[in-house]
Amino acid sequence: MVESLLNANPKLATLKDDDERLPIHWAVAYNHRDIVEQLVATKNFDPDVEDGSGWTPLMIATSLKNAEGDPMLDLLLRKGADATVTSNSGQVIPSHLEKPSFCLFQSLYKSKRLPTAAPI
């Protein structure tokens, strides 16, 4: 369904809502990896696009409970997401984690984009 919508109108991937969120933000927030995969494959995809609060898709993925966002972390990092970005309120990725996630750490390590305040 999403693929056919994007094929018919690629600009749908860049439409912002009232909170300045794009479809990528919502797809990550609701853990729809299949949709995330389709959105990151679109032309001119920006892995560091911020919503109105300065949150990137990577930040949203790290905020999901029980490490549910971990599968999307590697995908976003492979697309060039910056793990050191800070939100408008000064939050960094480690502050979103309840506890260190091996998958997150491994993904960040492989991408060489470790946050400066990585949790222990």
UniProtKB/TrEMBL annotation:
PROSITE patterns: ANK_REP_REGION, ANK_REPEAT. It comes from the Eukaryota. Keywords: ANK repeat, Repeat. InterPro entries: Ankyrin_rpt, Ankyrin_rpt-contain_sf. Transmembrane segments: none annotated. ANK repeats lie at residues 53-88. SMART domains: ANK. This is Uncharacterized protein.
